[in-house]
Structure formats: C-alpha cells, structure tokens
Amino acid sequence: MPIAIALVLVAVGSVAFHLLNPWWLTPIASNWHYIDATIAITFWITGVVFTAVVLFMAYCVFRFRHREGTQAAYQPENKRLEWWLAIVTGVGVAAMLTPGLFVWSQFVTPPKGASEFEVVGQQWMWSFRLPGKSGRLGTTDTKYITPENPLGVNPNDPNGRDNVVIVGDDLHLPVGKPVRVWLRSVDVVHDFYVPEFRAKMDLMPGMVTRFWFTPTRTGTFEILCAGFCGIGHPQMRGNVVVETESDYQAWLQKQQTFAQLSASAK
Ligand SMILES: [Cu+2]
Fold first, then answer.
1. 60 and 41 belong to one structural domain
2. Residues 210 and 226 placed together within one structural domain of the fold
C-alpha cells in the first residue's frame, strides 16, 4: 500500500510541479509560435503517457499485492496486447515527430525579400557579418582567415568589400523584418541559441547551416552557445539588440566594413 501511494504522489506531484514551477518559457520575441506549439504537443503526449503508466503501476501494485495462497501466472507472450502497444506507441511517436517536419521546412525556407546576416562561431565568441549597400554577402573561405581577416572574407570578391564585420560584439537587427541567417564555425561545433527567438541552429565546421526568423519586439536578447565546445563554452555569450529601423540604421553607419578593416590593418 505505501508503494502504491508513493506512485500516485509521483504522478500527481510531477503534473503539479510542471504547472506550478516558475521556470516557464521566456516571453517570445519572434514569429516562431510553431516551435512553442510543437513543445506543447510533446508535453501533452509525454505527460499523459507518463501519468497513465505511473497510475497503472500503482493500481497493479495494489490490486495484485501478495496474498497467502495465491500464485502469479507466467505469461511470456500476449499477441493481442503486443499489437495494441505497438500501434499506440507508433501513433504517439508519429504525433510528436510529424508536426516538427512541417515546422522544420518553414524554419529553413525564408520568405522572399528577407535580408540576411552571417553568424561565425569560434572558441569562444560570436562574430557577425552583414551585407553593405550592395545588399549581398561576399564569398568566404577558411584559407583567407588571418588575424586581420578573422571571418575569412574573400578579398577578391567585390561583394565582400562593403560587408559590415562585427567581431566579438553585439549584433543589431531591425524589428519586424524577416532575416535569413547563415551560420559557420571556424573550429568546432557550436550552436547559436537565442531562447526568446525560439531559434537554435548548429554551426558545423566545413558546412554552412541556415534558418530565418522575424524579430517581433525590441529589446536586448542574450545569445547562448548550446553545443558544448570546450572549456570556455559557458562564457560563449553575446547579444542581439532588436531596435527600430532608424536606430538600426544609425548603428549600422558606425560599423566598420571589411574594406575599412583591411585598410586599417595595413
Ligand atoms: Cu560554442
């Protein structure tokens, strides 16, 4: 009996803790409400299954408790029960995975007219590159990386000359504009994560990964590295400052372009 009661308390306590705990989602600051919806679906399915399994265990512990003179029956197989378990589990897993596939395809397909910026991760800081007046990002290659050109911008590509380069400082973005993100790493795997944007993407050495989002409110949002990347991983932080278009333009004017940075290095 005490074990059955303990199991019921585990089930009720887990649901109560989930509902009453203060560590809830941060207020959203992007268009990705779908990410919250997929998390809610997963919580509902896993929560209902967890509660049902624990309560069923409590029932069995109580109902089939030891009594003098009774004996357990050995039943190694039950075809009908196995079919039911396989079907119900399959439907539950599919219901958790399928919405994610639709959200994923939207997450990596930016709308027409989205602007763009690049995130570059390295142990242990964040750098960024924004297109200049031409509106285009120049090509890059790891072979161009030097202390003066930490992002490896191709010096022979005219599209890269006016690119704004921000090394280890805050990124600013205008509010309400869809923006496409390209992500690169110069050393190990990192992961660009801004909880308020509900957006998270790995930075893989040798690959360019991507996603897009629209910042929906102004403010300063912290960037965390969500892929363990060595001893400085917890300190790998940065900020995205979302502001009005005019504040953003004023900030952009003050930034250095790749051409200016290479000229001052010489
Ligand atoms: Cu990292």
1. yes
2. yes
Would 70 be classed as within a structural domain? no
pLDDT in tens, 206-262: 899 999 999 999 999 999 999 999 999 999 999 999 999 999 999 988 888 888 887
Q: Tell me the CA–centroid distance for residue 222 and ligand 1, in Å.
A: 14
Quick check: helix, strand or coil at residue 187? coil
Q: State pTM to two decimals.
A: 0.81
Q: Kindly state the greatest CA–CA separation across the chain.
A: 93
Is residue 96 domain-shared with residue 128, that is, in the same domain? no
Burial class of residue 148 (count of CB atoms within 10 Å of its CB; 0-12, 13-18, 19+): exposed
The alpha carbon of residue 203 and the mean position of all alpha carbons in its chain are separated, in whole angstroms, by: 12
Residue type at 50?
Answer: F
What residue numbers bound the domain in which 130 lies?
115-265
> How many A from CA of 187 to the centre of ligand 1?
9
